[in-house]
Amino acid sequence: MKFKILTLFPEIFPGPLSYSISGKAIKRKLFKIETINIRDFSKTKSKTVDDKPFGGGAGMIIKPDVLQDSLEFAKENSFKKKKLIFLTPSGKRLNSKLIHEFIKHEELVIICGRYEGIDNRFIEFNKIEEISVGDYVLSGGEIAAIILIDACVRLIPEVLGNRNSLNSESFCNDLLEYPQYTKPREWNGLEVPDVLLKGNHKEISKWRLKKSIIKTKNMRPDLYEDYVKKNKEGK
Ligand code: ADE
């Protein structure tokens, strides 16, 4: 899988992606990151990429012609099965289902905004999907891109050594993950739940599912509602 990132700050990448699971995956060539500096496509001497918004207001807007030239460059030597994504707080909120959709593509072209935003015609013209990583505003799309790439990469077959960990982690089946414990059995007066020490795997699975349901109901009533609905339909 390949990620092409259009950004004004290419030096931010790979950043945290060069560590741990994703770092090993880059070294093993399981995915690739390429950055394209939007500023390289400015036609002015001073390398300007933005201008004031029509209609007034604070901040500067990145110009559509500069963005288009950088996108055309990104499309050269591109995979056929690719998707264009613009990271913005006003996009569709990212979730596990969207990540599973994204990894079906050979290439994701990710556009990172800065300043007040980008000219909307660029999004319309290129039919770009707008994605947000959460209901808060970051200083730009670069950190959001790192979140998105990390979440995609761990779903690439071979990246995670133990595939079972994907089947139990949060958001699998609309549930959050159950609580986990390790040694020592007793710590600061707190005991590991008895059922986990007895080796009865059927009982352990039942207990974990129950804990997942309780946790989801408390932490994420929205997810819990989906879980209840789906499980009723399934019966
Ligand atoms: N850029 C700024 N804030 C963002 C967010 N919440 N998600 C995606 N991109 C962003």
Please describe what this structure looks like.
Helix content is 36%, strand content 19%. It has helices at 20-27, 64-75, 96-102, 120-126, 141-153, 164-168, 201-219, 221-234; strands spanning 2-7, 32-37, 50-51, 61-62, 82-93, 107-112, 117-118, 129-132, 186-187, 190-191. The strands form three sheets. A five-stranded parallel sheet has the order 2-1-6-5-8, sandwiched between helices. Strands 3-4-7 form a three-stranded mixed sheet. Adenine (ADE) binds at residues 87-89, 113, 132-134, 136-138, 140-141, 144. Adenine binds at residues 87-89, 113, 132-134, 136-138, 140-141, 144.
Features of the shown structure:
235 residues, alpha/beta, Alpha/beta knot, Trp Operon Repressor, Chain A, 2 domains, 5-stranded parallel sheet, 3-stranded mixed sheet, 8 helices, 10 strands, 36% helix, elongated, binds adenine
Provide a short characterization of the protein structure.
This protein is 36% helix and 19% strand. It contains eight helices and ten strands. It has helices spanning 20-27, 64-75, 96-102, 120-126, 141-153, 164-168, 201-219, 221-234, and strands at 2-7, 32-37, 50-51, 61-62, 82-93, 107-112, 117-118, 129-132, 186-187, 190-191.
